Amino acid sequence: MGMMNAWEPIAAPETPARAEPFVVQRAAREGEPPPTPLVFASPHSGRLYPDDMMQATTLDAVAIRRSEDAFVDDLIAGAPKLGAAVITAQFARAYIDLNRDAFELDPGMFADELPEFARARTARVAAGLGAIARVVSEGQEIYARKLTFAEARARIEGAHRPYHAALTRLIAEAQAAHGFAILIDWHSMPAAAAKAGGRDKPCDIVLGDRFGAACAGLLTARVERELEALGYRVARNTPYAGGYTTEHYGRPARRTHALQIEINRALYLDEANLSPTAGFERLKGRLEALTRTLAAADWSGMRPG
Questions:
Q1: Residues 240-243: contacts with CB within 8 Å, 24+ apart?
Q2: What pTM, to 2 d.p., does this model score?
Q3: In what order do the strands lie in the sheet with 256-264?
Q4: How large is the angle between the packed helices 279-296 and 217-229, nearest 10 degrees?
């Protein structure tokens, strides 16, 4: 079975023998300049679980999917026709997390000793959510055995490195054509997380710009204003300020502006069975309206002086 679409029943699909780690959809033919500086990424919506992982896991096909940003790739599928290049992961986040440093690994997960450069001591690793996750989002342990560093390296070399090489190329193409690039990293968050921060009402969308370090303020402000005009409650940087992608690529001084967008899953997803709700098409249409506005916007204030 190949990739699932938004309306198929929940299952961990079999991985094709030669599955590509990601899909790139350009807004122009390859070799032609992109029409806008927009680059969209969805690193956590992949839903392929290779056999080697499924043979090592304690989880069933339902539980193992709890970490997916389910169907976010489908929500932004219309972006290339509106002027934004899109890169989406194929392999599941639980297999290899593309929104982490490649060697952000937990030594306790491995049977052999990790090289010093792979012994990460980050809060994400401590939470069990490194580049190779120890748990799914509800805290359930993924593996029935210790992994080997060779297994981790194979996932990194086969999926993480190629994905980021492709993303780097898309950013470079946007910079060459427009003088700068705007990277938007798309995610979804559990409905419970949307209530963080002592809010009276849960937020619908969180914008993460690393507290202003990852992009020009006018980008965050414009996206916030447009989303609020569409009727959404928007928060900034709490509880998500942006992950590895936003931090790594968000370098306004180097002509790349990165913004993370987290969508409350209650807007479009039944979290119990990971199936789209009636809100899916409404949300998709509104995100296409946002993309259309961003593609047509005057971003001259973000060009180098």
A1: 240/187, 240/189, 240/193, 240/206, 240/208, 241/208, 241/209, 241/210, 241/211, 242/185, 242/208, 242/209, 242/210, 242/214, 243/99, 243/100, 243/185, 243/208
A2: 0.92
A3: 22-25, 85-89, 38-42, 181-189, 256-264, 205-208, 234-236
A4: 140
Asked if omega into 80 is within 30° of 0 (cis), the reply is: no
The torsion of the CA quartet 68, 69, 70, 76, rounded to 10 degrees, works out to -150
Amino acid identity of residue 288, one-letter, is: E
Q: Per residue in 129-149, is it b (16+ CB within 10 Å) or e — as a string?
A: bbbbbbbbbeebebbeeebeb
Give CA angle at 288 (284, 292), nearest 5°.
Answer: 175
Q: Contact, 210 vs 250, CB < 8 A? A: yes
**In this predicted model, what pLDDT tens digit does every residue of 209-236 receive, in sequence order?**
999 999 999 999 999 999 999 999 999 9
Give CA–CA dist 226/223, Å, rounded.
5
Q: What is the mean pLDDT of residues 264-271?
A: 97
Query: For 77-95, how does the pLDDT look when each residue is reduced to its tens digit (9 = 90+)?
Result: 999 999 999 999 999 999 9
Strand 256-264 with 275-276, pairing:
unpaired
Going by pLDDT thresholds of 50, 70 and 90, the confidence category of residue 270 is: very high
d(CA 135, CA 142): 5
Summarize pLDDT for 96-118 with one digit per residue, the tens: 999 999 999 999 999 999 998 88
Single out the residue of 20, 139, 39 nearest to residue 91, CA to CA: 20
